[in-house]
Amino acid sequence: MNNSPRLSSSRKAVIWVVLLLLFVVGIWYLLGRTPPAPEQVMRRGWGGQTSSVRVVPVQKGGLDVQVRSIGTVTPMNTVVVRSRVGGVLDKIVFTEGSEVSKGDLLAVIDPAPYRAQFEQAQGQLQQNQAQLANAKVDLSLYQGLYAEDSIARQQLDSQAALVRELEGANKSQQAQLDDARLQLSWTRIEAPISGRLGLRRIDAGNLIAANDSEGLVTITQTHPIAVLFTVSEVEVPALVKAFNVGDSLRVEALNRNEQNIIATGKLVTLDNQIDTTTGTLRVRAEFENLDNSLFPNQFVNVRLRLNSIADALTIPADAVQHGSQGSYVYVVEDSKAYIRQITTGIVDSDRVAVIDGLQAGDRVVIEGLDRLRDGRDVIVDGDAPVAAVDQRAGGAADSGSREGGKAPNSSAGGQRPNRDGGAAASSPH
């Protein structure tokens, strides 16, 4: 109990030491903070009034109206070569991947069994023909005897019936002979179309069945070759109008990054209906493909030129914004961004034709749009940062000289200041 005052004094001393340490740490933290760089202050601005943007000028020149899509290379014809007769695959005479013409020999089935069938049918036909010839001679004799009233009518009719029977047998046997000849010819497997061979699916010496689903090899017609692609129903009217003019519409097949043109062809046909699930129309383009630059089932980027407009004002599609009052852009004038209502025309991939609202040389914003309001101070990427720093540090004097003596944060025309400290502007958003 006698130590209580001493312990209480020690506890107070510890508390004061802890508080002193906290105070020192706080001072050190405040003094050790690095002030923001002038460039950061420049880009942030005071109260978010100044935004960094990137602009491009309005261009005037020719504008190609194009349709872009992704297409699939499709052969004009594809045939799986199958044997029409069964038997042992005697030999294969084609080279994989080579070009063949219609009628070229590809493989041979062992013809021995089918040759034997052919010779048997041929022999049976010769036998029936001899019987028919004898029957006809007898019939001629019977006709003479009947005329002399030497034989009965019944005997003459029986001989005539025998002749007709043998004639029918001969026709049947002739058909069997033709079938045997056809079977024998099918032991030679020939190319049904001209095209390019794929990889063989069976080796010589194997026993194959007639019309085997696996087949022997696949032939694809690659000269010419087709590309199937789709067009949005929004673009269909312009496509139909250009297609009905009569001139061949040029179609370009490009590589994956759309930097190189693989082949050039023409539009040949349009489908007769729009797919309701995708809202697109299927179309087909034809390419000569003499250099085999296009392969079946290959995916390519397709570019179809419909027409061209001369002396059109164009801007990047990224610059166009849409609001309740229509399309608009931000135009930079005197380091400020202003809303400009525009009327747009045709769209060509990444560029938009402007019918009204802009002039050639106007600078429109394409990056930093999310931070903009009408009349906001902006810093264009690439401009000297000194001007922006002077704008912040010069105070109201510099701003007032440009804005008729008004400070940056003053509201003009009785407008209510917004949260960012600038004048609240009506935006088409």
What does this structure look like?
Among the domains are: 51-58 and 320-402, conserved putative lor/sdh protein from methanococcus maripaludis s2 fold (Beta Barrel); 67-76 and 221-310, Efflux pump adaptor protein, beta barrel domain (Elongation Factor Tu (Ef-tu), domain 3, Beta Barrel); 113-186, Helix Hairpins, CATH 1.10.287. The chain has helices spanning 4-32, 38-44, 112-147, 153-185, 236-244, 385-393, 395-402, and strands at 51-57, 59-75, 78-81, 87-92, 99-100, 105-109, 188-190, 195-197, 207-208, 217-220, 225-232, 250-254, 261-270, 280-287, 299-316, 321-323, 326-333, 336-341, 343-348, 351-356, 363-367, 376-380. 31% of the residues lie in helices and 33% in strands. The two termini are 77 Å apart. The strands form four sheets. It has a six-stranded mixed β-sheet. The longest helix is centred in the N-terminal third of the chain and has 36 residues, at 112-147.
Question: In summary, what is this structure?
Answer:
Helices cover 31% and strands 33% of the residues. The protein is an alpha+beta fold.
User: What's the architecture of the domain at 67-76 and 221-310 in CATH terms?
Assistant: Beta Barrel
Write down the overall mean pLDDT: 81
Please give the count of helices.
7
Strand percentage lies at: 25-35%
Residue share in helix: 25-40%
Q: What is the strand tally?
A: 22
Topology:
Layout: H1 4-32, H2 38-44, E1 51-57, E2 59-75, E3 78-81, E4 87-92, E5 99-100, E6 105-109, H3 112-147, H4 153-185, E7 188-190, E8 195-197, E9 207-208, E10 217-220, E11 225-232, H5 236-244, E12 250-254, E13 261-270, E14 280-287, E15 299-316, E16 321-323, E17 326-333, E18 336-341, E19 343-348, E20 351-356, E21 363-367, E22 376-380, H6 385-393, H7 395-402
